[in-house]
Amino acid sequence: MRTSDKHTKIIEAAITVFARKGFFSARISDIAKEAQVADGTIYLYFNNKYDILISLFEEEIGKIILEVKLLMEKESDPRRMLQIFALHHMQLMEEKRELAEVLQMELRQSNKFMKEYRNTKFIEYVDVVSAIVHKGQEEGVFRKSLLPGVFKRAFFGALDETSRLWVLSPDHNYTIAEAAQQISDIFISGIMTDS
Amino acid sequence: MRTSDKHTKIIEAAITVFARKGFFSARISDIAKEAQVADGTIYLYFNNKYDILISLFEEEIGKIILEVKLLMEKESDPRRMLQIFALHHMQLMEEKRELAEVLQMELRQSNKFMKEYRNTKFIEYVDVVSAIVHKGQEEGVFRKSLLPGVFKRAFFGALDETSRLWVLSPDHNYTIAEAAQQISDIFISGIMTDS
DNA sequence: GTCTTATGAATGCGTATTCATTCATTTTTC
DNA sequence: GAAAAATGAATGAATACGCATTCATAAGAC
Q1: Is residue B117 classed as helix, strand or coil in its secondary structure?
Q2: Nearest-CA distance from B65 to chain A in Å?
Q3: Residue ranges of the domains in chain A?
């Protein structure tokens, strides 16, 4: 078995266990069991428990950013770009539930217990939205009076909270795609120049 | 010193300490120190560490709900109600930073480590928004095609994420009131019937 | 036969919780 | 009204235990 396989197996196991129990309640032995390795093996690939969480963030958000930037390159209409971002974000949360839970819960409070860790990757992801807003304003499609910094947070927050609760609650009277559509509709008609 | 004073002092100390360190990294002795009582005294008022957190949620969100429902009763225009809700929510986060941090961070992941705890108070708060949407739809001011369940989450998520980052980042190029205004503007123009 | 990778029992640290003790206040007794 | 007895709130050192991390040993690779 190659080295990289174990690294990946442990990360994947950690996603599952952190999603289920949360970072603090998760035991190293839980992750080891889930990854089918010995407890000690984990320390051959990671320095400590925090290191697993940080590696997980960096690697997984890295992949997501690559994906979304690729999608954005294929589109030029800012309105369509917002729609695509929304749909892609929500689908991601649906397809990778466990990862979504870890990112939503643990990522945000990580700066509480890991003082030194600044999550630049996360900022980079959300800044994809402000870039779209900026582009739309340049092109005169979006109102100049909007603050891109407010918009990106509001838009991201709307998507994230909606998908978070969609994943949590067992019964839904709407699909992920419908929710993404409604949210991007609201925001798009909310930021268009009056014409 | 009356009994109730100690209870309150401990809750207030817990808000400060949980905000600073997060629930798990917070030590009972930290809370005791902050509240200027002995470690053991805390166990005269609360069963355990979790109980402090739960009591804190129940009591503080209870107050917030009372406040916001009172505000809503004074207004009848659904658009104005959304504006007021937005502004009130954001101001709350600004005025009570520490409480805001605890609610935003710990409340959400509490169901991870406290299986049995269902946060009905939080749901009640967010449902204030869906009630407004419903009212607006009844009166024909808001589009019927919107799902109140999606809207409430999107609206709340937008407010919450924006205020969360406003509180975290040291420099702002906009005020809380401006952000609240922009967000309610976006959502209101996004859900109006086309007329 | 050496070097690498993996194991999991043993270690030790950190901290939630307990509980014997203190002490201020209230109640009872004469 | 003074002395004695009872109360229970508050204390904080001691306890107990969960779990991250280590490391002596084993298994596998070449």
Answers
A1: coil
A2: 20
A3: 1-46, 58-191
* Pair A157, B161: CB distance under 8 Å: yes
Selecting from B146, B161, B173 the residue whose C-beta is nearest the C-beta of A157 gives: B161
This model of the complex carries an ipTM of 0.88
pLDDT of B194: 63
CATH of domain A58-191: 1.10.357.10
| Range B57-191 classified under CATH 1.10.357.10 | yes
Q: pLDDT for A55-97, tens place per residue?
A: 999 999 999 999 999 999 999 999 999 999 999 999 999 999 9
Class of domain B1-46 (CATH, top level): mainly alpha
Q: Do domains A1-46 and A58-191 have the same CATH topology?
A: no
B160 interaction partners in chain A (CB closer than 8 Å): 157, 161
The closest CB to that of B190, out of A21, A147, A190, belongs to A190
> Of A109-113, B36-40, B161-165, which range is least confident?
A109-113
Q: How far is the CA of A27 from the C1' of D19 (A)?
A: 7
- Cα A105 from Cα A84, distance rounded (Å): 24
- List, in order, residues 6 or more apart from B170 with CB less than 8 Å away: none
For residues A6 and A45, the answer to whether their CB atoms sit within 8 Å is yes
